[in-house]
Structure of HTH lacI-type domain-containing protein:
Amino acid sequence: MNLKTLAQELGLSPTTVSRALNGYPEVSEATRARVTAAANAAHYHPNTQAKRLATGRAMAIGHIIPISDRHEIVNPVFADFIAGAGEVYARSGYDMVLTIVPDADEARAYGELRSKGNVDGVLIHAPRVNDHRITMLESLGLPYVLHGRISGIESSYSWVDVNNVRAFERATNFLLDLRHRRIALINGIGDMDFARRRRRGYERALAARAIALDPQLITEGEMTEAQGHDQARAMLALPDPPTAFLTASLLSAMGARRAVEEAGLVMGRDVSILTHDDELGYLKNGTAQEPIFTATRSSVREAGRRCAAMLIAQIESGNRQPISELMEAVLVLGQSTGPAPSR
Amino acid sequence: MNLKTLAQELGLSPTTVSRALNGYPEVSEATRARVTAAANAAHYHPNTQAKRLATGRAMAIGHIIPISDRHEIVNPVFADFIAGAGEVYARSGYDMVLTIVPDADEARAYGELRSKGNVDGVLIHAPRVNDHRITMLESLGLPYVLHGRISGIESSYSWVDVNNVRAFERATNFLLDLRHRRIALINGIGDMDFARRRRRGYERALAARAIALDPQLITEGEMTEAQGHDQARAMLALPDPPTAFLTASLLSAMGARRAVEEAGLVMGRDVSILTHDDELGYLKNGTAQEPIFTATRSSVREAGRRCAAMLIAQIESGNRQPISELMEAVLVLGQSTGPAPSR
DNA sequence: CCAGCAATTCAAAGCGCTTTGGACGGGCGA
DNA sequence: TCGCCCGTCCAAAGCGCTTTGAATTGCTGG
């Protein structure tokens, strides 16, 4: 079933049928009703490719996911982000096209996406410090929105991000208020921009109370259970071990908890753990009313929604002015933190 | 830059240029070389929409992801599966288009995908018992491959699946050989087909040794850390608690381990845990040489690759004969299992 | 030397839609 | 009554590619 035959059946021209279905005013309401009725009855949906070719709009948003041996971007956070963005795309009639590329080919992938014209814009994930993608996209002239920010870049660009500095500064202050002085940071991978910012918040809070940084208490890595466990265990074995851990993800926090328990200590009493919680769909921090871990909480799915909405707005308005949105994390109290044990 | 202008610059007709680039034989090697050189220099890539319209092939595979309040399909397993499939798509020149829909609209989404013609086929995730999607896709005439199987359906269809029955039968037998008699099953959601099959394997092994099923030792649910923890804790509090747990995912196993440790027991000595491990990229079961949990192991990413390859093969061959592939899980030995403690 | 053939190349139609520029007719004001 | 405008509809061009059918060229063999 296509436009032409539908038009023939109705005794109308394709022009009129097209206009009726797309809500143009130069068609009488009577025929519009007749046309929509017939279209529904015939389960007619205009061919996407033809529509795209005629309008020059791909009605699709690209996500490029680099895959490397070094580490995985296809992680749990990514899945939830995608889900949030996908909701918005679906509502707005956009397709989501995912491209998995070996990370050596990433730049080429953007260029091809552009020149093949199969997306109207792209969403950029997991920016690193001094990430080169922004300059590349600028030169391509392809609309984009960044999930996160890039510390090394001066020029302005569109982004949605959590206020990571503030979140981790508050978290650190919270632990300091509980009289913790040996606070460890189990961070995400060091050249990820969000990890850099979290560390900055942590350092700022310590500096404000004139507490010297102890490099032994700062680690980084892929945010897995094993990372949390191994790094926490190593730090607990130090001569002067930390009394509190700040972790970058729920998985790391779970690993840290295991290390704490293995050491015969009680979480929340002997050792406090405070983590960032992305509110992943399948990895809950207890219940909303009763969290297990005290956490800085910010929904990554919501971030996905906002990124998508922002990108679509940019595309449809044709506006190239960069816009941005900073989300604040809330600090929720769980059972994993308590006053520092007195020595 | 488009075909026409490229052809003009070369002093050739669009026909010839198109043929040169697409490898048709009726063009001399000399001009083909000249054309490809010019195309590369100009960074020319044929417009995807136009190509699709002209060829009638979308060069895209659809994944429909229903989203419900009840539970999340956007889970970690999904992310890894997607990554595997995406690798194959990228190599074969296909796009991956993800559609997120409220699960009430799922059927409609397939219909639209079909009639709008923006995919050449679809990959079906997470089949349930008596899943209706197969019959629907058959009637739509849209090529598909199923990741998993559907117990209630007699007709044949294309699928890739792990031999879940056998995996869990072997796992159960392994525990039985270690003299465990109270073996608990912490399963995935009950109406998921894979959960049903795993349970069948478990039941079959017990039946073979004439051990009665104890419904108190069988639970199901979303495979999260909390599920593993809560359900294991409840079972450990029974008058006659299990000495071994069989869990459906690494996350559940981690939860179960926590419950075991909270009860003052030692995993691998007092209580054994054996889990299924999907080999997720960011959720490793220790290292390959030294697993933490004894596990039935099968890479879901590899499953994604095989599903994608199978679907593309079907599409390109035009073959509508159902094909299928059964993957066997391997049983790897970790530190989480040991002989049943003597009473 | 020319018919016949293979190797190259091209013009033009077509994929299914949108959109521009008109055509047509009815109602209104002058 | 006539002219004009507005509401409604349509024919045809065009989006950028592929592909059919035909044209052109250069050779070969009789």
